[in-house]
């Protein structure tokens, strides 16, 4: 296990009705806030109205930035930064899913920065100061409600890039599983895939000895495998939604990656796909992830995949590591298919045409991966295997 610093300070208010605490959570920060929302679901299902009623009652002045789309765009971030400066806003509340939260976090990082907020994504500068952010989560997937990351797309250059700064980790997040009852089937499925792939990115690692982190990771995977299908069949099953939402937060709040080299190659490759084709993130991951596993499987990596096969899928260790790993990968692919998500790029309208360009962009900041380093040719091979 490697050295690490453990500090995950987000206050999580978990469960039915926790929205009642909203004003109390914000009051210490500011009485002028920006509310960031998506393309309508939170208004359709009354979550926005309930939040605003509580905030107004507490005398908090609210301004809105609406219309954040999946694969959120930089231009909305600029709009939010302008609004915060003009209205002297001191706190940002995201009500929605990952795209809304990531937009809120990026706005927060840019308000007091004199340059272009995109500098942070190009690694030309780092956030030094940020407005505090809080979230009311409505979809289980990204873990953005508890983590330091934000992912934004710059349309004009078709770049989808990430920032990571502890300054933008949400101060609090309200996780009410009932808010996720209305998530459409395809987004619930994509969310489960996203959670599982977040675990893979940290679980499959060259670091030895982080046994406890690996057992926690396996528990999250088993929770997804057990409750994922239930969420799709019974969208209003409270326990299923509760377990999935908490799995999403724990999968990517930093906990299971502590003391380990992480991978993130699958995510970098997927971000190129969603930058160009506006693909749903979890669907892109469902297609790439099993092929990434197959591509990097060898005698050296088979140990990690066999543990996964035995501990998560209950496979028999006697088969030998490579055969066992192949079976575990097939189990993963079939599970994703059983959730109703696509398994080939051609199914979602992606052909050979731009694969080489995307492979080049994926490695623009250097080789990918932790358990196995990948160059442009490797990325292209994985994309081709996924067609
Ligand atoms: O826009 P609205 O109307 O709200 O509809 C959304 C959207 O269409 C809908 N939705 C959300 N909650 C709902 C609901 N519909 C009905 N009832 C509800 N309760 O769901 C759709 C998808 O929303 P989106 O925010 O795109 O989903 P998700 O949470 O999966 O976020 C995906 C984005 O996060 C990035 C992805 O790349 C993608 O851009 N990621 C962010 C990460 C992070 N910050 O740590 C890590 C991830 O790996 C990921 O890259
Ligand atoms: Zn993800």
What does this structure look like?
- The protein has 387 residues and is of the alpha/beta class.
- 48% of the residues lie in helices and 11% in strands.
- Helix 4 packs across helix 5 (98-110), helix 7 packs parallel to helix 9 and helix 11 packs across helix 15.
- The longest helix is centred in the middle third of the chain and has 23 residues, at 211-233.
- It is globular and about 65 Å long.
- The model has no long low-confidence stretch (mean pLDDT 98).
- Bound molecules: 5,6-dihydroxy-NADP and zinc ion (ZN).
Give a summary of the structure in a few sentences.
The protein has 387 residues and is an alpha/beta fold. The chain has helices at residues 22-27, 41-44, 47-57, 74-86, 98-110, 118-121, 185-203, 211-233, 238-251, 265-277, 281-296, 302-313, 321-338, 355-362, 376-385; strands spanning 11-14, 32-36, 61-65, 91-96, 133-137, 149-154, 159-164, 172-175.
Features:
six-stranded parallel sheet, 15 helices, two-stranded antiparallel ribbon, alpha/beta, binds zinc ion, binds 5,6-dihydroxy-NADP, 8 strands, 387 residues
- Give me the Rg, rounded: 20 Å
Mean of all residue-level pLDDT scores: 98
Order of helices and strands: EHEHHEHEHHEEEEHHHHHHHHH
Ligand inventory = 5,6-dihydroxy-NADP, zinc ion
Largest sheet: 6 strands, parallel
SSE layout and pairings?
Layout: E1 11-14, H1 22-27, E2 32-36, H2 41-44, H3 47-57, E3 61-65, H4 74-86, E4 91-96, H5 98-110, H6 118-121, E5 133-137, E6 149-154, E7 159-164, E8 172-175, H7 185-203, H8 211-233, H9 238-251, H10 265-277, H11 281-296, H12 302-313, H13 321-338, H14 355-362, H15 376-385
The protein binds 5,6-dihydroxy-NADP (NZQ) and zinc ion.
């Amino acid at each position: 296990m490697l050295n690490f610093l453990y500090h995950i300070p987000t206050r999580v208010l978990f469960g039915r009705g926790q929205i009642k605490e909203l004003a109390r959570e914000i009051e210490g920060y500011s009485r002028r806030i920006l509310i960031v929302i998506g393309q309508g679901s939170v208004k359709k299902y009354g979550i926005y109205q309930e939040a605003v009623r509580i905030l107004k009652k507490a005398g908090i002045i609210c301004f809105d930035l609406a219309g954040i789309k999946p694969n959120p765009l930089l231009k909305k971030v600029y709009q939010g930064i302008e609004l915060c400066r003009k209205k002297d806003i001191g706190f940002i509340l995201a009500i929605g899913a990952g795209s809304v939260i990531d937009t809120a976090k990026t706005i927060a990082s840019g308000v007091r920065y004199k340059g272009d907020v995109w500098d942070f994504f190009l690694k030309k500068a780092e956030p030094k100061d940020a407005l505090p952010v809080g979230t009311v989560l409505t979809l289980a997937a990204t873990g953005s409600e508890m983590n330091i990351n934000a992912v934004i797309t710059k349309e004009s250059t078709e770049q989808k890039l990430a920032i990571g700064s502890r300054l933008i980790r949400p101060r609090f997040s309200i996780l009410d599983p009932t808010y996720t009852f209305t998530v459409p089937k395809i987004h619930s499925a994509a969310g489960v895939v996203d959670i599982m792939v977040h675990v893979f990115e940290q679980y499959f690692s060259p670091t030895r000895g982080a046994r406890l982190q690996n057992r926690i990771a396996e528990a999250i995977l088993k929770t997804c495998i057990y409750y994922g299908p239930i969420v799709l069949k019974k969208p209003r099953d409270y326990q299923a939604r509760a377990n999935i939402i908490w799995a999403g937060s724990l999968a990517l709040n930093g906990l299971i990656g502590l003391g380990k080299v992480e991978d993130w190659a699958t995510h970098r490759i997927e971000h190129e796909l969603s930058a160009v084709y506006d693909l749903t993130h979890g669907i892109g991951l469902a297609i790439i992830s099993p092929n990434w596993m197959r591509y990097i499987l060898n005698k050296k990596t088979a140990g990690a995949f066999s543990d996964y096969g035995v501990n998560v899928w209950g496979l028999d260790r006697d088969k030998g590591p490579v055969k066992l790993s192949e079976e575990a990968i097939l189990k993963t692919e079939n599970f994703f298919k059983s959730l109703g998500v696509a398994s080939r790029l051609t199914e979602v309208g992606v052909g050979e045409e731009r694969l080489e360009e995307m492979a080049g962009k994926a490695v623009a900041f250097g080789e990918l991966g932790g358990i196995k380093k990948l160059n442009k040719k490797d990325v292209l091979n994985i994309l081709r295997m996924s067609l």
